[in-house]
Amino acid sequence: MTRQGASEIRPGQHEQASLRLSLEPADYLEVLAGQVTQLYASGRIKIEGDLGLGLSLARMLSTQAMADWSPDRDLLEEVSARGAPLERIERRDMPAQAVFMKEYAQASRPVILVDVVKTWDVHALSPRRLRAEFGSVRVVPRVGDYVAAAFTPHHTYAQMSLAEYLDMLDAAPEQGILPPYLGNNAVPEGLLAYIQYPPFFVPRTCGRPNMWLGPAGTITPLHRDLVDNALAQVFGRKRLMLFPPGQSKFLYTWSNSKLVDGARVDPDHPDLEQFPLFARARGIPCTLEPGEMLFIPAGWFHKVCSLTPSLSISFFKLYEPPAAMTLPAAT
Ligand SMILES: O=C(O)CCC(=O)C(=O)O
Q1: How far is the CA of 330 from the centre of ligand 1 (A)?
Q2: Does residue 225's CB lie within 6 angstroms of at least one atom of ligand 1?
Q3: Do 33 and 165 fall into the same domain?
Q4: Distance, CA of 103 to CA of 100 (rounded, Å)
Q5: Is 216 in contact with 173 (CB distance < 8 Å)?
């Protein structure tokens, strides 16, 4: 790969390569299955050169391989605008599958399910048990200004054991300083036994679940995934602000990815001079409590802030188009 010039893929080595990724051929399938951070942390992918760029390139390969369909942003925006505008996110037990599909997934309506995570062995995922059973697992938390770097290859990462990371979990948040965040890391193999896929996703249509572990004060800035997504709160609390897909015109979106759009405006501190249309946006706040699972339909914008030390697990339905895209467009 080279920094300048038209892109060209050829076998062999570029004499001015700015980045080199090496891995065993057998691990390539693991990359395609989304195991990038884990492979890197365990030394199975070697990255010479810019780490942020290397990890993001490897992730891009996997996204490309998984989603062999293309998101239709207009359709997602149109479908979500069909019902009455949501005032708040409903909380309820998981309904029958057919009801979930019709009233939430196909209707592009987020919902908080209060009974789904209750069937997990959440004690096995407590900081104490994580340290005891998985403390030696190598992890690569985001550090620095990962909010500014979000959805770009410019992330910086630290490398440590999970036990070392857990030592930081109870640190009090410091004003204006982002704590290191173990965000969007594939759930380590041994931990999968304690996690259950949401009842409304067929597991083979999802990528590997990702974990989001961090102290109070972590932030994932406003963005949307163009895939159906479920966020399960294992411990701790998170505050979210959601915006329906149809409000993309007020949020100053940008994208360098097939499946994620960033938003340049920060809903908690909007700069209305720079982003005047944001004054017309209507966000829906909600707080995710331990044991709750939020279904985020494809295309819904969300900003996520942890209020306490927190562990969430996310499930992205990557291998199939969003449910809301399976309905015929309104005539
Ligand atoms: O929990 C977080 O910090 C972000 C989660 C998220 O953005 C997602 O699941 O799509």
Answers
A1: 31
A2: yes
A3: no
A4: 5
A5: yes
Output DSSP code: residue 126: S
Shared domain for 128 and 32, answered yes or no, is no
Whether residues 188 and 259 fall in one domain = yes
Q: How far is Cα 87 from Cα 323, in angstroms, rounded to an integer?
A: 22
Question: For the purposes of burial, counting CB atoms within 10 Å of the CB of 303, is it exposed (0-12), middle (13-18) or buried (19 or more)?
Answer: buried
Atom from ligand 1 closest to the CA of residue 214: 3
Rounded Cα distance between 272 and 210, Å, is 34
> Based on the domain organization, do 174 and 281 belong to the same domain?
yes
Do 238 and 302 belong to one domain?
yes
Task: Provide the domain count of the chain.
Answer: 2
Residue 8 banded pLDDT, cuts 50, 70, 90: low
* pLDDT at residue 34 is higher than 80: no
Does residue 145 surpass a pLDDT of 60? yes
Q: Which residues of 180-195 are buried (b: 16+ CB within 10 A; e: fewer)?
A: bbbbebbbbeebeebb
Residue with tokens 């339909």: 297
Residue pLDDT, tens place only, 168-204: 998 888 888 999 999 998 898 889 999 999 999 999 9
Mutational pocket test of ligand 1: of 147, 243, 312, the residue with most ligand atoms within 8 Å of the beta carbon: 312
Residue 1: pLDDT band (50, 70, 90) is: very low
Choose among 72, 123, 95: nearest CA to 198: 95
- State the CB neighbour count (10 A cutoff) for residue 72: 18
Domain range for residue 43? 19-66
